[in-house]
Structure formats: structure tokens, C-alpha cells
Amino acid sequence: MEDDRTYNFFRFEDLRIYDKALSYVEWVYHLTANLEETPNNRILAKEFLKLSRNIANAIAEGSSRSKPQFVQLLKEAKTLVREALVMGTLMHRLALISDEQSHENRELVIEMSRMLGALIASLEKPQRKQESREVYPDGME
């Protein structure tokens, strides 16, 4: 019987937070593509887009490392998420994005921050040792 699941060679591709981070990169790309073409706007747009990509990159890079290193890179991704909030707030204060876009940015980064926090907590949780019980041939334990 064939397994219907798709196998991803890279483990991070199976993480919901990775998919959410890529969706955020797409959102930032479309947001910044509509900015008025000025040198300062291009600089901010480029920084915001790079920042959003770095969130996904930290998740991908960490997945190939040891558990403590993965947790550290997830924490770095969480820091980048907070920086994305700052960038969105700055762009709103400069009247480069609307109230609605600023609110949407806030909602997206809050969701990513929560997802990263949950993943970090699950990785840092001490694993319970599996109690092995010896089973005797006659079924008595």
C-alpha cells in the first residue's frame, strides 16, 4: 500500500511556521512593490523584504542543526519577527502603508511569534523516558 503523504527531503518544508514565513515574504513583497519609487522608499522596501526572508531562512537553517542550535535559530527568527513589527510600524508612521496594512502586518507577526514560541517550547520540553517493560515468553510481566 502506497503512502499518500508527500515526502520532503528538507524537514523544514513540513513545518507550518516555515510555510507561514514564506507567506509573509510574499505579503511583504506585494506590499513593498506598490510603494512610490523614491530612493528612501526603495531602501526601506529592500530592508523589509530582506528581513522577512531572513525569518524563513533562520527556520530552514536551524532545522539541519542539533536541537539546541535549532532552538537558538528559532529564537533568532522570533527576534526578526519583532523587527518586522518595528519595520511595519515605521512604514506606517511615515505614511508609506495604510492603517489596514499596518494592522495586517501586526496580526501576521503576532501569529508567527506565537507559532515560533510554541515550537521552541516543544523542543525545549524534556522528553519523558520511555519505560521499557520486559515481556516474558508466557505473557507474564
Structure description:
The protein has 141 residues and is mainly alpha-helical. It has a domain at 34-123: Up-down Bundle (de novo design (two linked rop proteins)). Helices cover 68% and strands 0% of the residues. It is built from 4 helices and no strands. It has helices at residues 16-33, 39-63, 67-93, 99-124. Helix 1 runs antiparallel to helix 4 (99-124).
Point out poorly predicted stretches.
130-136
Write out the CATH superfamily name of the domain at 34-123: 23S rRNA-intervening sequence
Rg = 21 Å
Q: Name the average pLDDT.
A: 88
Q: Which class best fits the helix and strand makeup?
A: mainly alpha
CATH class of the domain at 34-123: Mainly Alpha
Tally of alpha and pi helices: 4
Shape: elongated
Helix content: 55-70%
Q: What name is given to the CATH topology of the domain at 34-123?
A: de novo design (two linked rop proteins)
Total strands: 0
Q: In angstroms, what separates the terminal alpha carbons?
A: 35 Å
Biggest sheet: strands, sense, closure?
Answer: none
CATH architecture of the domain at 34-123: Up-down Bundle
Strand content: under 5%
N-to-C SSE series? HHHH
